[in-house]
Amino acid sequence: MSVRHFLTLTDLSQDELRHLIDRASELKAMHRKGEVYQPLQGRVLGMIFEKSSTRTRVSFEAGMVQLGGGAIFLSPRDTQLGRGEPIEDSARVLSQMVDAVMIRTFEHDKAVTFAKYSNVPVINALTDDYHPCQLLADMQAYQEARGSVTGKTVTWVGDGNNMCNSYINAAIQYDFKLNIACPEGFEPMQALLDKAGDRVTLYRDPAEAVEKAHLVTTDVWASMGQEEEAQARESAFAGFQVSPALMDKADPEAVFLHCLPAHRGEEVSIDMLDDPRSVVWEQAGNRLHAQKALLEFLLCSE
Ligand code: CP
Ligand code: NVA
Fold it and tell me: Which of 64, 135, 161, 236 sits CB 3.0–4.6 Å from 71 for a disulfide?
């Protein structure tokens, strides 16, 4: 069978994606019981990070160790990637030495090129356009809190960024309705909106967008690589803050998610992450379990 990659949620079928979420919850329960499960003994994950990370690095590295394997952290500062060795060459070399590669980078095309030249699975651990691993943890967090997300209404408030694009893919793959509230000029990718059709509705008013929502989520106003735009973005996004008062307009059973790191006082009010409707800590912890399910799927089902 040809090698499978995970560059966006559309690389897996709907059934495979549903299985991953169920499996992530199973692996979480096993982990909490202290059960040792090591199907990846002797297997190695190469982890290329061209942007900063706390959750992604620790969850992949800890996940590989827990599954019996190991992980190697590769930063452009001290690899030849940072000195201009072509991505194609790096992919051909690394994929002879490790069993899977995880890449966090800027241009999505870079991850696509890496995957094209790799003969081991490549996982997108965030690009400027997508963050599919985070969506696995988000879908798991919602399912564990309230049951299946299928048929529910999800509201995205804020920037049409990599997370928002991934929510559009998730709406297609997990079959839910997505309301997106963003200021003019900060819309997600048009091609994705076209593909999603009437499953996705754009709003300019967050209060209108959260009406009847079962899940409300947001992300920073300036993503990694947009530091210089931060000030201009602060004015553009004024009014796009998620707060307990905004959550009051959603479904009474609504939950709040944020991929983190969060900027309190900007996209979230000071008190939002600690509101009883917030499940952000469970969501962050799920990165470990969801990615263990992904690694098991990519490395054990050949
Ligand atoms: N949510 C997320 O990907 O966090 P890190 O940037 O810390 O990995
Ligand atoms: N949109 C954010 C997500 C961080 C996990 C960024 O790209 O910086």
Answer: 64
